[in-house]
Amino acid sequence: MSDADDYVFGREYSEGLRLETQHLLFNIHNGYTIDPKIPITPEMKIADMGTGTGIWLLDISRQVPSTVQLDAFDISDKQFPHKDSRPDNMSFRTLDAFSQVPDELIGKYDVVHLRLWCCIVRDCKTAALIHHATRLLKPGGYLQWDEADLGNMHIKGAEAEAVAALQRTVQGITHFDYSWIRDLPNRSKEAGLEVLKFETEPFSKSCISIVTRACIMAYVPGMKSLYQSGDAALPPREEAEASLDALIKALPHGAVYHWTPASLLARKPVA
Prior knowledge:
Layout: H1 13-30, E1 45-49, H2 55-60, E2 69-74, E3 90-94, E4 109-115, H3 127-136, E5 137-156, H4 158-174, H5 179-182, H6 184-190, E6 194-199, H7 205-229, H8 237-250, E7 256-267
Parallel strand pairs: 1-2, 1-4, 2-3, 4-5
Antiparallel strand pairs: 5-7, 6-7
Helix pairs in contact: 1-7, 4-8, 7-8
């Protein structure tokens, strides 16, 4: 794990590639980058919390006027692109999404985007994160949230079942409980937001190979972090690695192992 935070996947080069693959996956599944229900205006301001490589905002920058302000936030700057690779209207800043919002950012944004907090939120404790996002929004602003529901997996085959059993063990060790994802509408309403839509439709067949590869790409660094912790509840490392290798070999023969996407769109009331 990172010395500065609790991110289980690390921030190596391959992890940036995985995040960018998942961005393309969400685009294919959703059919958009920014939800078409969100009106685009030349003077609007958009924030991305937990931005990683900034891929979501970099994509958005091609779709909105150059006068739109794009601000990317993450607890770590290790995956931020070089300044020469950023549009002029895009900035990057380190910020802890579970902390208080700086005064100058309160009520600043027309849109706040979140994605893939499933392996950051522990013990279903989302209140601080949702509060932070809500504080960033202007009255009338939109919260767009794309999530991976790892509590609703699509599994087929003995090899996939073996990896699923390992995941259940890991959940107990790491305190990851994904039930909060299906409860996002209620949690958003409790934070004072108006929920406009919440969708948990399975991936189409055209996406299954992509999401499966993305899942496996996430397991490799995740497994490394887990075994560095030395937790006695873990099975022998070689057993876990053999299970993952067996799943990879079984994929061409019909094995299935992937999560269900979830998408929330909510709005902060004007008054």
